[in-house]
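[Meeting: bench + compute handoff]

Bench side (C.D.) handed over the final construct sequence. Compute side (W.E.) agreed to return the predicted structure before the next meeting so the bench team could plan truncations. Sequence as handed over:
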Amino acid sequence: MELQAVKGTRDFYPEQMRVRNWLFSIWREVSECSGFEEYDACVLEHEDLYVRKAGDEITQQLYNFQDKSGRKLSLRPEMTPSLARMILQHHRALIFPVKWFSIPQCFRYERMTKGRRREHFQWNADIIGQPGEIAEAEILMLLINAMQKMGLNADDITIFINDRRILNAVLEQVGIPEPHHAEVLVILDKRDKISPEALAELLREQGIAAAAIPQLLELLECPDLKALKSRLGNPEPFAGLETLFGLLEASGHGDFLKFDVSIVRGLSYYTGPVFEMNSPDKSQRAICGGGRYDSLLSTYGGETIPAVGFGFGDVVVLDVLEAKGKQPQLDQRLDVMVIPFETDQAGTALQVASSLRKSGLRVDCNFSMRKMKKVLQQADDAGVKQAVLLFPQELEQGQVVVRNMAERSQQNVALADLQSGWLTSQ
């Protein structure tokens, strides 16, 4: 029997699970504090929910199969199509805008590199039914709040932002017709993954004129929003991004934002601002990414409903925290360990533990019957605050010994007092 986890997947032992729960708790806390509600969907979806987006790389990365009834199904590679399906299913009953978040597990069969596995958990947050840049501002502030909760600030991370309307204007400037825009943008999203020669070859395969390719790549090197606006000579595609920068400045979060014309995002359904979060020098993989996708719901046969959101994976951000020495140090969270010293004390130990748990304490019993020094060391390693020692002589007198693990002090306490809430009053 193969004992290793399936290639590209992970097991979560208790120490890793503590970190995962810590990260999820931050995602939930900042989401709920910003008015987002949690939702979920089944990890199985109909395959055509994803393959409808022709040209997207994700369609080549599906874990897909036929079930016993011949239905073509897939493990979800991302959450946004499931969200779109759910919104369309009940859109007449919803009061827009809706602000929803989820923490799904997603699966993609792709080449593994640092920060990328074939499964990951992903924090998704979306605002549906809110036109204009206020929704983007709320989404970006939500991301910034989460990073600040993790101990990271504008010196540690930057949100690099662009706009699909600007990119479309760039493509038009060099003579690439609109029907080719979606395919070209998917190719341009590979710029940091392949050589310039390979990139040019992919563009030629799309029928892009050889003379247009160097012009396109030159424009995509323009570092400044105003300079690019001047080069294109058309202010209209830039208006939304300029408004968004103003909103983030007004909210006190402008330091986190930077225009970057190279940000494309590979999914074809984006229609407006697109963004990625990374270290200021882009030394890591993108921590998260997202943007506006007003046309996605209509591709599934529904109305055109404005929408903006992001996906934030658990893998890269933990690498970033480790690289910056800011990963959380989390012990097992126990308030009390009850320690019997004879096997016939097991019933008493369980009774004590039960009464303490009813008062809201996190309690474990240690039935190892090992030597005192080793058992106390085990309690210390588990982060226990108080140890309740069931010494035979004290028990005969209706007492237990309560040891304060931090102060290494102890005192006798009547068993009746302990069970009636003595520990919670200390």
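W.E. noted at the follow-up: The chain has a mean pLDDT of 91. C.D. will use this when planning the next construct.
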